[in-house]
Predict the structure of DUF7514 domain-containing protein.
Amino acid sequence: MADEPKPTSAAQNEEDGHTEPSEVETKEAVQYWGYLFKADKCGTSKLDRLLMGIAKHITTTTDPNDDCTDITPHQLATFYRSVGGNYDSLFLHKPPASIAFIYKSLGCSHSLQPSDLTDPYSPPSVPALKRHGYVTWQTIQLLLEPAEHVPFLQTAVHKFDIIDPDEGRRFPRVLPKEVLPSKPDQDMLTWFESVSERLRHDAQALSRPPWDSADDREYETDERADAARYFDHQMRRE
């Protein structure tokens, strides 16, 4: 079993050629963005548009495929590396069924794509996030681990041309930390822990007979246990 994801900090400013914005630039950026979460913990429409723009950037710059605009695990792993993270152990080393179960548990809409994108007849098994599914995924990560994920977004808007899908213009290069959470959201942590506990319980129940098929039991237990390990690891990091 591969280790759980160990994201690093955002790319170093020196490596990106990034310079800290001036006080005036920061103030103007805060006014432009506004706080990007509403009271109900949902992202504002501007955050959703930013994340949709990032989703399009991911699918059009990493292994683009005209037949699929959903984000594969390889594409997402590549994106996180490009902004200073490392989620290879989740998106490249976990079985596709386990990744799909994690997406399902988090409510992230996704499709199943052929394992060989050059062969349309290969069986669909690779979970790929819909763009709205990526918005859900990244919103959850921002609430759970802002210390990791806020710098990822800051690096993305500074480093890449992220286009507002509604207005067709590039988002500003400056994304101040003041417009995003500064600490994990307690309600999100509580919900995340409840999902983790349910998955642990389900995995334990499925490991016990009776089952009609030993193969089905092993498959269901493995994907739930793998997902439970992911959730447990995330909770231990808090």
